[in-house]
Backbone:
């Protein structure tokens, strides 16, 4: 059964939100979703750029009360 | 009151020394017991491994006897923990001994797991162990020309190490007089040459100036050591003559075997440093899942915060922290053999890199010796 995990990368600069997401994506199973929380505006473009290049799926990408919520699905 | 620290690396050792000094009277009066359990009788200065790889330090300079670094009131045993029985507030060690505690601190660090990437162990050199750093130095001395490729796995300890290594490779081959015969390539997992935007902003023009080629969004998938090709998750590949890898890291096996982890790391409150769901168990250093760099610097600053909170807890009985860990990290960044800068940040303040200078480099060289004062909790 697919899992949904929240990765809180708010207020982190090193290694930063994309690296945090990649870490958890490596641990996830195909079909799992991960919701990255980030206060870095760069995440809104950085995360989808990597997700699309590697072939996973962006489900949602929105800023709520100053925090980016970027939900992705591992597809392979 | 029994305080038990598991792990004799940077975080565990600094914490033990701080607690010993601050609780000295309580320890001598028999009101507090302070015990440190470690898997080794030796303490390694891990940042020195990079210098070993480039022939600037020798392996013997990386070690001190752990006992020699500790205050005399610390009850130190080389007896690694095998079972964490958190509901019963005790651990069981390899020797079969049981240690009860009122406060437990887990500082077990991390390990490299190159075996998670097919072909990596066979095809790549690294500098994350003594043996591999010594071997890499030999390979670098023998190298007569061709393509040197650096690949970076996730997660890894010391996020600036691959950047430093590239600048040091540039200066190393310049000093050997064969830089024109060597192509330096840097393959990095995120969409900039470093995960931290300000580090990338500084490093990219420096790479350009040094003629270091780079490819971003390259997440290591596998290595073919026969064809000498590295493959990425993104579908690209690169050929090499000498491959240097920053291998993937995980928390220690004992943490996973005791099911304390999520994906190898212990879920930890990023401010209080308590293990999630346990108010008498703390976690510091690489073992945590806190989203800060896995570095000795983070472990150092965490141990100072935790020492203050444990002392307050013992003296006032309060579970509320008197200090919170603010995410502080300070890392030197070597920009070659004679220049360096530094990366300092916390949960609120971004790193703001200054131009590299000889003085910061020499401070780093001095810190390589000052570490032994730092780990005693004096600096």
Residues:
């Amino acid at each position: 059964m697919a899992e949904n995990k929240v990765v809180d990368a708010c207020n982190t600069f090193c290694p930063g939100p994309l690296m945090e997401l990649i870490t958890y994506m490596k641990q996830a199973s195909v079909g799992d979703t991960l919701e990255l929380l980030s206060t870095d505006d760069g995440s809104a473009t950085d995360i989808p750029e990597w997700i699309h290049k590697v072939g996973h799926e962006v489900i949602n990408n929105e800023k709520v009360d100053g925090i980016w919520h970027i939900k992705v699905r591992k597809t392979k | 009151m029994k305080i038990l620290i598991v792990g004799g690396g940077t975080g565990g050792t600094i914490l033990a020394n701080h607690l010993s000094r601050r609780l000295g009277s309580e320890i001598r009066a028999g009101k507090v017991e302070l015990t440190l359990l470690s898997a080794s009788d030796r303490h390694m200065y891990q940042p020195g491994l990079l210098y070993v790889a480039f022939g600037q330090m020798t392996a013997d300079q990386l070690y001190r006897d752990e006992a020699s670094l500790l205050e005399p009131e610390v009850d130190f045993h080389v007896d690694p923990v095998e079972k964490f029985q958190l509901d019963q507030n005790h651990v069981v060690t390899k020797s079969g001994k049981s240690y009860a505690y009122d406060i437990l601190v887990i500082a077990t660090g991390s390990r490299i797991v190159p075996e998670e990437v097919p072909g990596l162990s066979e095809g790549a050199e690294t500098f994350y162990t003594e043996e591999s750093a010594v071997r890499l130095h030999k390979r670098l001395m023998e190298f007569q020309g061709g393509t040197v490729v650096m690949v970076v796995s996730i997660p890894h300890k010391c996020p600036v190490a691959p950047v430093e290594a590239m600048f040091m490779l540039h200066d190393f081959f310049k000093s050997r007089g064969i830089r024109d015969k060597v192509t330096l390539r840097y393959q990095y997992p995120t969409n900039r040459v470093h995960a931290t935007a300000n580090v990338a902003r500084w490093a990219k023009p420096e790479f350009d100036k040094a003629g270091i080629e780079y490819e971003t969004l390259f997440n290591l998938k596998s290595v073919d050591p026969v064809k000498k090709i590295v493959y990425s998750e993104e579908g690209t590949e690169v050929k090499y003559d000498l491959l240097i890898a920053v291998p993937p890291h995980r928390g220690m096996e004992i943490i996973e075997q005791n099911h304390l982890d999520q994906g190898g790391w212990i879920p930890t409150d990023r401010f209080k440093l308590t293990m999630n769901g346990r108010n008498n168990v703390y976690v510091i250093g690489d073992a945590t899942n806190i989203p800060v760099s896995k570095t000795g610097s983070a472990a150092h600053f965490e141990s100072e915060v935790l020492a203050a909170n444990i002392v307050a807890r013992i003296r006032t009985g309060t579970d509320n922290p008197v200090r919170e860990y603010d995410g502080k990290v300070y890392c030197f960044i070597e920009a070659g053999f004679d220049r360096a800068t530094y990366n300092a940040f916390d949960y609120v303040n971004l790193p703001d890199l200054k131009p590299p200078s000889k003085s910061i480099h020499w401070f780093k060289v001095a810190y390589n010796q000052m570490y032994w004062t730092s780990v005693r909790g004096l600096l």
User: Anything to note?
Assistant: The mean pLDDT of chain B is 97. Chain B touches chain A through 27 residues (CB under 8 Å). DSSP finds eleven helices and 21 strands in chain B. The CA atoms of residues 87 and 278 of chain B lie 9 Å apart.
